[in-house]
Amino acid sequence: MKIIVTGSLGSISRPLAEMLIAQGHQVTVVSSDAKKQGEIESLGAIAAIGSIADAAFLTNTFKGADAVYAMIPLSFTAPDLGDYMHRMASNYKQALKDANIKRIVLLSGWAADLVKAENVEHLFDGLEASITIMRPGAFYTNFYQSMDLIKGKGLIGKFLTLRYFGLWALLTGKTGLLMGNYGGEDRIVFVSPTDIAAAVAEELLLLPAGKTIRYVGSEEMTCNEAAKIIGTAVGKPWLKWVLLSDQEMLRGLKMAKVPGKLAETLVEMQAAMHSGKTLENFHQNNPKMGKVKLADFAKAFAIAYHKK
């Protein structure tokens, strides 16, 4: 099969490309970074250098493909996340339609249907194609964004934003803390990008009718249980995950000079997770869990933590 993988060589797209190439498929990897071309080609893939903001580029890249994996990277510089997401989704839809793609796997988020700005899934309605929406849980790799703060290099007493789910961290003396307007004893489904890649690789070879939704997770636990696993791996077993109110979270984001609409969206995402609605939706779909446990990821995290 001829398969297009967007997302450059990111935490999902790289292992996905490697899996598909190992299966004998012809893989094209889309990247906006021309410096990635050599690395992409060294994997045995074709490099397509361009931006998903360019619908014409996407159309030309997609032509002749049997399937496309589409993802929209979140922007933390766009003043209006919702507008950005909708523009990128519209580009994808136009290109997929013009290129007559019959199999589409779209990366979404497990709270996407609950957060207005993030929910662009409906924009793909109307395409004459088999579409699977992937809704993964909270990425293990988000913990990398808290590394400096766990080490004590953050600004004591001030909040600093962490990638995607807007986690927060604060270090006071010897006590490490993760903070957010979800946390504490909230139960969360965490997921390894490798498990997401494996699920996407499975879906790309299927052809279900119409639109389907697939949730992806690796392990379910409370936020404090997750913090303890990460903390123990780096020698700080006292690490806790403190629950903030929505108002405290919003104030922290604004203090960190996150654009207003983006800050509100991040708070809304976390509030959906704290409410338990995301977990309820996950359980209703009863997906099979992936293979990579948080303790496995924590070993790799600890190596990177101690090297930094």
Q: Mind explaining what this structure looks like?
A:
By secondary structure, this protein is an alpha/beta fold. The protein has two domains: 2-137 and 192-216, Rossmann fold, CATH 3.40.50.720; 140-188 and 220-307, UDP-galactose 4-epimerase, domain 1, CATH 3.90.25.10. Helices cover 39% and strands 20% of the residues. It has helices at 13-22, 37-42, 55-62, 81-98, 147-151, 193-204, 223-233, 246-255, 260-275, 277-285, 294-307; strands at 2-5, 26-31, 46-49, 67-70, 103-107, 130-136, 138-139, 168-172, 175-180, 187-191, 211-216, 219-222, 240-243. The strands form three sheets. A seven-stranded parallel β-sheet has the order 3-2-1-4-5-6-11. Strands 7-10-12 form a three-stranded mixed β-sheet. It has a three-stranded mixed β-sheet with strand order 8-9-13. Helix 3 (55-62) packs parallel to helix 4 (81-98) and helix 7 crosses helix 11. The termini are far apart. Residues 153-175 have low confidence and may be disordered.
Report the order of strands and helices. EHEHEHEHEEEHEEEHEEHEHHHH
Structure annotation, total helices: 11
Class computed from helices, strands and strand pairing = alpha/beta
Could you name the CATH topology of the largest domain?
Rossmann fold
Radius of gyration: 19 Å
Gap between N and C termini, in Å?
A: 41 Å
